[in-house]
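[User] At your convenience, examine this fold.
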Amino acid sequence: MRKFLWPIVVLVAGCALPPRQEVPPVAPPPRAPAQPSPAAPAEEWKVVASRLELRVFRDGPMQKFGHNHLIASDRLEGEIALRQPLTDTSFDLRLPLESLVVDDEQARTAAGGEFAAPVPEKDRDGTRRNMLGDKLLDVANHPVMRLTSEGISGDPGSYRAQVRVSLRGAEHVVEAPFTVTIEGDRLQAHAAFRLTHADVGLEPFTVALGALKVRDDFEVDLALEARPAS
């Protein structure tokens, strides 16, 4: 009987299942990256009025022989793509540099203080000629300054815009604090801040080996009004 059972035991042992292999768990497929929320549709507005003023100051050992200058234009134009929230807004503004006026008497009187006194016509003409010439703005080759938004941050009362300034064939990004009010179909924005010549890729004008020169920093005051383009 044992002889009869032995082959069966051997046969069963040979047919036994192999040891169970541990199968590693299948990793779940990677989750698709979250898609950014689409930007709110923009409402196109157009600049209909503007006033840009630059206050430039004399410097150097002989500065008493020079003048502080008020440079202005009311020819800034462009478009604003208005979105909500306002920090999603963008703009594209342009200024023909030939429109810059140096030391207009009425503008100086309105500014008062260091700018109240009039500047002789020959000095106004000379300053404008130097400013538009190839050593500074080079208007003959680069007639337009362009201001485009790189981003807006903050909240009502304390907005700040990163502005790409395209000037004299180069681009520089500056930061400008501003306020804005929107009442019906009228948008008004105002920015007042200080820059240096280096901020926009320029060098201050100098004469007499620097004995009389333009101070490196200057003040910017910009106000504009826009209306819906439609």
Summary: The chain has one domain: 42-228. The chain has a mean pLDDT of 86. The helical segments are 2-14, 105-111, 121-132.
